[in-house]
Amino acid sequence: MTEQEKYEKWKKIAEKMLNEKQIIQEVGVELAQKEYGIEFNELRPPRIREKK
Amino acid sequence: MELNLTNLDHHEFEKKNNIYQFVNDFGVIYQVYFTIGADYFPDTYFKNYLKTFGFLPISSTDFSFDKKTSETIIYILADFLSQGDYIVMFVCDEKDNKQSVRNRLFNTWFKKYNDGSFDKFDLVFEKTTFVSAIISKNNPFYIDFKNSFPNLGNEYK
Q: Could you tell me the pTM of the whole model?
C-alpha cells in the first residue's frame, strides 16, 4: 500500500469513527446499538477497589 | 503488561449493559464505551483486537473535567487495555469546534499517565480531524499496526 493509500484509508476510518460518535451522542448507547447496529464491546465488571 | 492503576483517584463506576457509567462530584453522569473496530481493517490479523473508545456526559452538555473525572476515564481505558492485546482508537469530537483543545488534552493525559509501555499514534486530517490509536509496545501486532499509518514526514492531500 502506498503512503497516499494509507492516508486515504485512515481518513475514511476517521470519518466513520466521527459518524459513529455522533450517532452515539445523539441517540444514546442503547438506540445506537439497536437502531444503527453499532456493536459495543463486552465489558467485565469493575474491579473491587482495594481498601487502603 | 498491566499498568499500575492504584494511584489513580477515580470515581466508582458500574457496568450497565456494555458501557461503564459513573457520576462525578458535580452530579454529571458519564458513560464510557468501547465499540468493535474490526471493520476498519477487515483483512488484517489484528482486526478482532481493534476497538474504538469514547465517552460522553449524558446528563449535561458540559464537557469540562475535574481531575477525578479525568482519572476515572483513564482508569477505565487503562484497565481495558490491560485485559488483552487490544488496540484502542479514538477521534476527537468536532461538533463544537473544540477538537484541537481535546487533542491537546488527550496528549497531556497520555504523557502524564503512560508508564512507557504504550505508544500513541496520531493523525490529523485537514487540520481539523484528530484521530489517535494507543497500543502496547509489546502487542504482537505492533509492527503491522504501525505500518498501517502513512509516513508522517510526507504531506498528503
A: 0.91
